[in-house]
Design goal:
Blueprint lengths: L8 H11 L13 H4 L12 H12 L9 E2 L13 H6 L2 H4 L11 H18 L3 E2 L6 H15 L5 E5 L4 H11 L5 E5 L1 E2 L2 E2 L1 H7 L4 E8 L9 H10 L3 E6 L17 E5 L15 E5 L12 E5 L5 E5 L6 H4 L12 H36 L5 E3 L9 E6 L3 H10 L2 E2 L14 E5 L6 H14 L2
Parallel strand pairs: 1-15, 3-4, 3-7, 7-8, 8-9
Antiparallel strand pairs: 2-10, 5-6, 9-10, 11-12, 13-14, 14-16
Helix pairs in contact: 6-12, 7-8, 12-14
Length: about 450
């Protein structure tokens, strides 16, 4: 199909005739006249495809992107290397145009990809079961809280670490707004969850504890300690994790997480304007019949041949309607396909190598920042690929100045917490070179004078 094919005057006349109308104005008769005033401004003359493409390219060049700048931005969407095999395979029409695989006889390819995605996710997170993906990390985590809290009868308090990504916490607050579940924010100390404050709040009313690792500030938490304290109080432990950190750090299943959610943008998806996103959801098998989203299972047909099907569909709303335990049937299937290809291409050794490189880069960057006006906000903490740093002056002015020098940094942290005034985030993934980090530090020194 031509990407820029307009209807002709004859075709528009034919459509109006079918509708029994004489002009396009009749399509808008249902809109009161007073509402139409000023709504339809005088538009410019229509452009051809070539002219329009060039105009849009000119407008796009006004934005500062990874193509024209070196990206050290953190905060949830990151620039990682994407192997060429990912877009090459995921761009095949069989994946791009596919719909929900309700008919397994016509969807074996897609179903197998989702099954492999679930399998690799379970191995990476060391959890019992994973679904076939969700919208994004924030909604995946919120669904995990709802599921775990529903299983904790008589408990209605959700203890949330202050170091959880603020946007994820806002999403969770939206989910719980009209439910009989209270959010209690556990303060942080030295960039990590305050274990003493957590113990004070853990009582017979606590349904779950939510913690992120590495957390929003880039710090690596003591997840085993948090898990032990949570379970000793009879609550569920829910984790938000960075998938690429699991080649280096302990997996959620290793320290006893009941539910683990993640943002899968780092698994072969470009950052764009905040991402393509991918919700990853894993849990213990005890929750399998209560978990949201689709599950793909392995079976055999009458001839004994291997096959893949959607399973446990009685959880879903297209079967159980209002009695469903899963009310999210849609997912980011194409992005899950990309993530599956990415994980298969890298394998355990490749994911570990990326983790080691990220860790080495952030340590190098922290060392190079010594004796500058930019200092670590939490110097005693360990970091994976991101670090919170403090600047004594105008942070937003510094970010703008660095943008003009061709560096993307931030975001500023003070808008999220007054205790983080004058601080911002820097990330250094495996794609950053030492030369780029040296130039970043030199530019920071110059702009912070």
């Amino acid at each position: 199909m031509n990407p820029y094919l307009c209807s002709t005057d004859e075709e528009r006349a034919e459509m109006l005739n079918v509708l029994g109308m004489k002009s396009e104005d009749e399509l808008f008769l249902c809109i009161p006249e007073d509402l139409k005033k000023g709504v339809f401004p005088q538009l410019q003359t229509a452009l051809g495809e070539f002219e329009l493409s060039r105009k849009l390219e000119t407008l796009a060049r006004q934005n500062l992107s990874n193509d024209g700048a070196v990206c050290f931005m953190g905060g949830g969407a990151y620039e990682h290397f994407i192997p060429a095999v990912v877009p090459a395979l995921a761009g095949r029409s069989e994946f791009v145009t596919s719909y929900t695989p309700y008919q397994p006889e016509a969807s074996q390819g897609n179903l197998q990809v989702f099954f492999e995605f679930q399998t690799m996710t379970c191995r990476l997170f060391e959890m019992d079961v994973a679904n076939a993906s969700m919208y994004d990390g924030a909604t995946s985590l919120a669904e995990g809280v709802l599921m775990a809290a529903a299983a904790q009868k008589g408990r209605n308090r959700c203890l949330i670490s202050e170091t959880l990504h603020p946007h994820w916490r806002e999403t969770l607050e939206t989910y719980l707004k009209n439910l009989d579940l209270d959010i209690v924010v556990i303060k942080s100390i030295n960039g990590m969850t305050d274990a003493v404050a957590l113990e004070r709040e853990l009582d017979e009313r606590a349904a779950c504890v939510v913690a992120q690792n590495p957390n929003f500030l880039g710090c690596i938490e003591d997840m085993q300690s948090l898990s032990d304290k949570t379970h000793s109080a009879g609550a569920a432990f829910i984790v938000a994790a960075d998938p690429l950190s699991l080649g280096l750090l302990a997996a959620p299943g290793e320290y006893g997480a009941d539910v683990a959610a993640a943002e899968g943008q780092c698994l072969g998806l470009p950052p764009y304007f905040g991402g393509e996103t991918l919700g990853i959801f894993t849990c213990k098998k005890d929750f399998m019949r209560k978990m949201p989203g689709r599950l793909v299972g392995l079976t055999k047909d009458l001839q004994g041949r291997r096959g893949f099907v959607l399973t446990l569909q009685t959880r879903e709303q297209h079967i159980r309607r209002d009695k469903a335990t899963s009310n999210i049937c849609s997912n980011h299937a194409l992005n899950a396909t990309k993530a599956a290809i990415y994980m298969a291409a890298l394998g355990p050794a490749g994911i570990r190598e990326i983790g080691e490189t990220c860790r080495a880069n952030i340590q190098y960057l922290q060392t190079q920042l010594a004796d500058s006006a930019i200092s670590p906000l939490f110097p005693e903490a360990h970091h994976f690929k991101e670090i919170a740093v403090r600047f004594g002056g105008d942070v937003n002015g510094l970010i703008d100045a660095m943008n003009r020098k061709g560096f993307l940094i931030g975001p500023s942290l003070e808008k999220y917490n007054s205790d983080w005034k004058g601080a911002f985030l820097l990330s250094a993934t495996e794609v950053r070179t030492r030369d780029e980090m040296d130039r970043l530090v030199a530019a920071l020194r110059e702009c912070s004078r």
